[in-house]
Amino acid sequence: ASARAAEICRLAPVIPVLVIDDLAHARPLAEALVAGGLPVLEVTLRTPVALDAIRAMAAVPGGVVGAGTLLTPEDVAAAKEAGAQFGVSPGATDRLLDAAEARGLPMLPGAATASEVMTLLERGYTTQKFFPAEAVGGAPALRSLASPLPQVSFCPTGGITLANAPTYLSLPNTLCVGGSWVAPKDRMQAGDWAAIETLAREAASLPR
Ligand code: 3PG
Question: Which of 24, 40, 140, 146 has the most CB atoms around its CB within 10 Å?
């Protein structure tokens, strides 16, 4: 269930987690992030324009646009219809995963504990989101999962910054990290796409 999700996670060290309030920001934001070297974009379904933003961003050459904060089968259907190429969820339920599998939407489902990781692994998810990464113990907690569960790889998300990302990216069970720091709200509101491109370039050059 995870082959495409793993491929996507290997495209860049960082997946920007995007909260888009203004539809007009979608295209220039995607262009800036892709130009800066971050092709994989997660648009969270937390704002009224999120689905239209996915539609607009999916047209940007070089981008791989997914939908985040998927909670329900209805979210999966809407994300797929908007053109999302993958989905991300903070946790996982059977209803959510059933819907994603039925619609062929590759998923990066969230887990925070060994039991949650094992439950996803039983369904074949060998690539998972580790969430909320910093709050549940950070890189030491994630590193600890590698010993008993070496077959599972992660995209940790939640509280990750340019400063703490390298520690995660050095772990054997981390493919990439997710974070909102590359698209700060104030830079988006100012239309400062050059600043966001610079943040993307810094993030894209993080070693793995
Ligand atoms: C989220 O769900 O908002 C992501 O985990 C991003 O978290 P961050 O804002 O701490 O990077």
Answer: 40
Residue 178 main-chain phi, psi, to 5 deg? -115, 150
Give the residue from 82, 87, 89 showing the smallest Cα distance to 53: 82
15 lines ligand 1 (CB under 6 A): no
For residue 129, indicate whether it is catalytic. Answer: yes
Q: Which of 143, 135, 195, 127 is nearest to 160 (CA)?
A: 135
What are 27-69's pLDDT values in tens digits?
A: 999 999 999 999 999 999 999 999 999 999 999 999 999 999 9
Cα–Cα distance for residue pair 48/27, rounded to 1 Å: 16
Map out the domains of the chain with their CATH numbers. 3-204 (3.20.20.70)
Q: Which of 42, 74, 134, 197 is catalytic?
A: 42
Pairing of strands 87-88, 40-44: unpaired
Catalytic status, residue 185: no
pTM, to two decimals = 0.97
In this prediction, residue 1 carries a pLDDT of: 76
Residue 29 has what pLDDT? 98
Q: Position of tokens 């991300």? A: 88
Residue 17 Cβ inside 6 Å of ligand 1? The answer reads: yes
Length of the chain: 208
